[in-house]
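Subject: Sanity check before I submit

Could someone independently write out the structure tokens for this chain? I want to compare against mine line by line before I put it in a report. The sequence has 471 residues.
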Amino acid sequence: MNQILKTMRSSLKTIIITAAAALFFASCGDEYGDRKESTPVIESAAIHPASFTFGDSVTLAALVTDPATTLAALEYKFISDGKIIASGSIPIGDQRFDVAQRIFVPLVSGQADNAQVTVALTARNVLKGYSGKEITAAGKRPVYSRLYLVTSYGAVVTLSPQAAGRDKYEAAGLTLDASFEYRIAEKITSDKQIDYSGAVWGNVNGRLAMIDDRGEPAFAHTPHSDYTQSLVYDNDAFSMTATGGTLGAHDLTLGAFAEEAIAQESFRTLSRTLENNREYTLFGKLANERIVYNLDFFERTASNRVKFLGKTGTYTLYYNPVRQNVILGVENPAYPDYLPACGFGLGYPTRATSQEIEAVYAGHGRTHTGWGFDHILQYVLFRQISDGVYQGTFYTPGDHDHYAGFKPFEDTGWGNEKPAGSFAFTGEQIISGDGDWTIPNGDNDPVMPSDYYRFTVNLNENTVNIEKIIL
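---
Independent answer below. Compare away.
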């Protein structure tokens, strides 16, 4: 009997403790509110505008509540033609939350026009309770008056709509490389950069798709061709078709250039005959409008064409991919065809800044000459433009010291120097001295701003005219 009573007392004690614990936990809450099973409620939801254009952003407006538990997130999926074209999760909190979220709805390949778009919503609370709701909207395919193909090296090609087929855009008469990286953009800025406020396409997992400013470029290749001559972009299938061509005798492309290192700088070089007043077509990277062709030997007649102004002969073209310029070299340049000048503070014109050059070639800047004729960067050439008259266009003085000290000669053997004291200087009064042509930077000298100057040396009249040049 005592044993039975003892067992009953123990069981009753266990029951009392268990019940008390249950009551305690049932009455307790935590940072998420009372721990009661509950289901979120999507009270209302809408897409604004209800009819939109694929490739634009819409606003998802919704009111989500939960009777007992803190809300966690509102998930969304935009579904068109059975494909999920946009999805995401919007963090929310409290037990009542008004959602107003901008969402980008991309255009995908093969997207139907005037398509019904189902927006599937799922609201979740912190205790894994959830509920769903679907709303509908309508999506239209965009129509563009033009698109732009922008290569990774800065070339911009305008793609115009084909007369037949609203989703196809084309360009012809091109001089692009046979292989190149590119993006397609709806908008570009005044300086021909991609404006990412418009639609942009690039590489997504090896296929053309819509991208943002962090997206990668796509890749195009025109097989069995020297260059890409025409393009057709299909904005329905997100595909590019290219047609190639074969180079002619008067065409210039980097594929024909060799690689050469000069004074710790990288060059692409080509030795060939150039004919006076002959126009040469530029292909691929050489057609980049940022490239400055030696202003005293070439006239740029179009974005992809230059006319040679020098005498017919054999020359070496030097393309510097960092300085973004093409300068001209000739073996043993000498009077009467040329006046080679060396010294400090001259540089062939370039649109690259000294900071851009320094970032790749340590210690180098826009000016590059020195005393000597060992290589093409140590000296510059004045070209004979008429009998006894020579022209040279250079950047001077140096950005880092605002100093220049140089002198023309009749040959690279230091023959028959041309001291400053032999000439009367007209135009921009930047030169001083009797020996070297000097732009001083002493304590009492005015700071001479670095700029592009054209020097015209007249040996018949012993004058030098200096004028500023705008690139």
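---
OP: Matches mine. For the report I'm noting this point. The first strand starts at residue 29 and ends at 30.
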